[in-house]
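Thread title: Can someone regenerate the structure for this chain?

I was given the following input by a collaborator and told the matching structure tokens would be attached. They weren't. Posting the sequence so someone can regenerate them.
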Amino acid sequence: MDYLVGINKMIEVFDCPYISKVNNKKFQQDLIKYTLKNKCCSTSPNCIHPEIQSDQKVDEEFSCIKKSINSLFTNYLETKNFKFHKKDVWIYYASKNTNTETFKHNHFFSGITNTQVSALMYITPTDLGTDFYNFKIEPEINKWYVWHSGLYHEPEAGITKEDRIVLALSSVISI
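Best answer:
Regenerated them for you:
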């Protein structure tokens, strides 16, 4: 585990062997197909989500993603004794030569007292990271970036040089 330089080590970084073993063009195309078929919500494209974002169940379709998330939380929490009360997992996709959609947001569920954790992983190489107020994630593929869900962030503004695929999650857990 590494820490991203920032205030009080706000983001932890974990390697992901589950995804790195399968992350190839076919896997990436499968994620894009899933995203295009399984839209973010029933009001898409007239919703607040990015134009091309999947539903929040991508881990149910791809076992490697489900295994990766379980491994991530086991390492992050340093225990196997945890329970998901809520887990949303989705794909954000921006095709080559498109502007990233920026919108400062967090994934905090108000009124919930359990621990809330968010994370993302860059599936494809990109120069466009994720901006937080005081720092930016410099993206590396096949790594989980983990933080408290209350932290506001947004995709870095810019034009994608290649297809940009990001796996994201928000969760509510107890130990």
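Residues 2-174 form a domain with the Jelly Rolls fold (CATH 2.60.120.620).
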